[in-house]
Amino acid sequence: MVFEGLADKLQGALKKLKSKGKLTEKDVKEAMREVKLALLEADVNFKVVKDFINKVKERAIGAEVMESLTPGQHVIKIVNEELTALMGTTQSKLTFSSKPPTVYMLVGLQGAGKTTTGGKLGGYLKTMGKRPLLVAGDIYRPAAIKQLQVVGKQLDIPVFSMGDKISPVNIAKAGIEHANQHSNDVVIIDTAGRLHIDENLMDELEDIKKTVNPQEILLVVDAMTGQDAVNVAERFNEKLGIDGVILTKLDGDTRGGAALSVRAVTQKPIKFVGMGEKLSELEAFHPDRMASRILGMGDVLSLIEKAQVNFDAKKAKELEKRIKSQEFSFEDFLEQLQQMKNMGPMSQLLEMIPGANSKQLKNLEINEKEFVHIEAMIQSMTKEERKNPSMINGSRRKRIAKGSGMTVNKVNGLLKQFAQTKKMMKQFTDMEKNMKKGGRMKLPFFGK
């Protein structure tokens, strides 16, 4: 889970307040002491923690809270608001040049994931109807150019390269000319990184900045490096004047120090977060939604957005019709399964459900392999068998088991599960029809 350790501790500290009918100043101070320790353990910048605690305490000890009918809830609301403010209050969107192409310059240390992030950003902009061009400006790291070309090919985004013998400044300049000639309205420049910040690196980046005058300089930092990521952001901002931050590997960050500190320290917004290795796993950063997730309140809006992107509205309507006319088949089941997989790991989706805290998710075994097994079994069926599972007899079950590398028991289990799902769908459809007619609502019976 994102920020697992921090989320556990914050939710635990605030739960104690929630259970109290009335709050004293002592109760609030004790809870804030626990919150402070949780933030420091999560590698959040000390000054940021101090300011945050003072703001929450000042508001929480006020008359508005103490005289409230639900003071515990009120304090949680304040913590949520202050966490949101800490990370930037509202989503900070990319800005675009009035005269194309819009140039984005990606900077950062080696190993932060700049090259992959450049591809991910290009893919994100493609979904907005843009025509991006990736420019290979890292001439020092072995295979950096090749890596960008591979990423570009996977996403069907053109990559401009001049090899590793031309200066990055000239490559960037020529890349923009190429974009003008080929109607690319966005240019993403992948620049070189170092293992640490040095004068040569900064001089080169400053030269590129002066030459191409980018619309935005986006700093790519590894969220898992915590306070180091914040220090890097501060240094790059001092030297280059960055416009925003992209945090990579946030899906593996159990602490949260970078996400909670970087905006407060640099006063520059987090624009995107990398939530996985897939090239589609770059998300716009929403401070309010992230605060809700940390406090166990879920993130329903992001869940809905993921569903809207990955689920075809037309197909969803057709599926609804088939369910209502009792025509739901294994073909439909497989399609839904594949669309769910596109939404990301199941553990990440469950985090977005309000009330699902990290301890509950830890105890819940989510075996992603089960999806693969189900997929393999369905794909081992013939088209006729998928449409009409009742025809699957003993010999067919053996063939499906052999074709999918599963046991006959596994195939039997899948068929039984599918029959129960179909039965349940029929019961809910009948209930809906009954309600529309104005009849009495009959609850579905799930027994034998």
Automatic annotation (TrEMBL):
Q: Which family does it belong to?
A: Belongs to the GTP-binding SRP family. SRP54 subfamily.
**What is stated about domains?**
Composed of three domains: the N-terminal N domain, which is responsible for interactions with the ribosome, the central G domain, which binds GTP, and the C-terminal M domain, which binds the RNA and the signal sequence of the RNC.
Q: Which reaction does it catalyse?
A: GTP + H2O = GDP + phosphate + H(+)
Identification of the protein by name:
Signal recognition particle protein
Q: Where does GTP bind?
A: 108-115, 190-194, 248-251
Coarsely, its chief localization is cytoplasm
Localization recorded for this chain is: Cytoplasm
**Cited SMART domains:** AAA, SRP54, SRP54_N
Entry's InterPro entries? AAA+_ATPase, P-loop_NTPase, Signal_recog_part_SRP54_M_sf, Signal_recog_particl_SRP54_hlx, Signal_recog_particle_SRP54_M, SRP, SRP54, SRP54_GTPase_dom
Keyword field: Cytoplasm, GTP-binding, Hydrolase, Nucleotide-binding, Ribonucleoprotein, RNA-binding, Signal recognition particle
Q: Organism, per UniProt? A: Marinisporobacter balticus
